[in-house]
UniProtKB/TrEMBL annotation:
CDD domains: ABC_Mj1267_LivG_branched. SMART domains: AAA. Residues 2-250 form the ABC transporter domain. This is Amino acid/amide ABC transporter ATP-binding protein 1, HAAT family (TC 3.A.1.4.-). Keywords: ATP-binding, Nucleotide-binding, Transport. GO terms for molecular function: ATP binding; ATP hydrolysis activity. InterPro entries: AAA+_ATPase (IPR003593), ABC_AA/LPS_Transport (IPR051120), ABC_transporter-like_ATP-bd (IPR003439), ABC_transporter-like_CS (IPR017871), BCA_ABC_TP_C (IPR032823), P-loop_NTPase (IPR027417). GO terms for cellular component: plasma membrane. Gene3D superfamilies: P-loop containing nucleotide triphosphate hydrolases. It holds the Pfam family BCA_ABC_TP_C.
């Protein structure tokens, strides 16, 4: 579904992405791991149109989407969430979801004067869909709560809910588990798995929690210094010497091996 070829993103002399190439298969949950500064979020930002690439190409379903702005990619079904949730704090959880779909009749002044019935019908349909999404995510009890009052984990669920308000095809999740307690993290993981299996969502997620990655993701891609270091199943990646060295450094890797029990 997504293919990235020889992607570069430079900031002056710093090469945040340095020839990275990845593939995200349709219907997969792909994990993207690596130490801080590996280029993971930059890669996400280039794919999602937040940043233009210095060089390289991004394809979606065979179509060259390199450099397309986020709003165009949104309409193609490519969505990206951020490590820090971007909710409308003063609006309710339900209203946050109802804001997502574009092209609503109530967005034009003409329609607010002359097509009030059409607007009311659309809003009723959006409200029903929002309530279905909240029930799916098991946060329907928070429908009328101000979004700014939610916990970090609940805001991550709300971000996931936004992707369900449109016809998302592939969703990029940036550190969905950051600052989330274990109970809510399991709820988020359950929702991702259900969306993948029941609704055919394709996911790619950046995450540092390797238990979470191992539960959800196949394959797992490891980046380091702007390049793809290794690709494979979670257990293979976690035992790969290159990955261990990227996370721990050569000295710590050697000490870890020396301290490992024999046999």
């Amino acid at each position: 579904m997504i293919r990235v070829e020889n992607l570069h993103k430079h900031f002056g002399g710093f090469r945040a992405c340095d020839g990275a190439s990845i593939e995200i298969a349709e219907g997969s949950i792909t994990g993207l791991i690596g130490p801080n500064g590996a280029g993971k979020s930059t890669l996400f930002n280039v794919i999602a149109g937040v940043l233009p690439p210095t060089a390289g190409t991004v394809y979606m379903g065979g179509e060259d989407i390199t450099g397309l702005p986020p709003h165009e990619l949104f309409h193609k079904g490519l969505l990206r969430t951020f490590q820090i949730a971007h909710e409308f704090a003063s609006m309710t959880v339900r209203e946050n979801l109802m804001m997502v779909p574009g092209g609503q009749s109530g967005e034009t002044l003409w329609n607010t004067w002359f097509r009030r019935g059409q607007i009311a019908t659309e809003e009723a349909a959006l409200r029903r869909k929002a309530d279905e999404v909240l029930q799916f995510l098991t946060i329907d009890h928070l429908a009328d709560e101000k979004a700014g009052n939610l916990s970090g984990g609940q805001k991550k669920l709300l971000e996931l809910g936004r992707t369900m308000m449109v016809d998302a095809k592939v969703v990029f999740l940036d550190e969905v588990g950051a600052g989330v307690n274990r109970t809510l993290l399991r709820t988020i993981g359950d929702a991702i798995l259900r969306l993948n299996k029941e609704r055919g969502y394709t996911f790619c997620l950046i995450e540092h929690d390797m238990d979470f990655i191992a539960r959800l993701c196949d394959p797992v891609i490891c980046m380091a210094e702007g390049k793809v270091l290794a690709v494979g199943k979670a257990q293979e990646i976690m035992q790969d010497d290159r990955v261990i060295e990227a996370y721990l450094g050569t000295g710590l890797k050697s000490r870890t091996k020396a301290e490992a029990p024999a046999g």
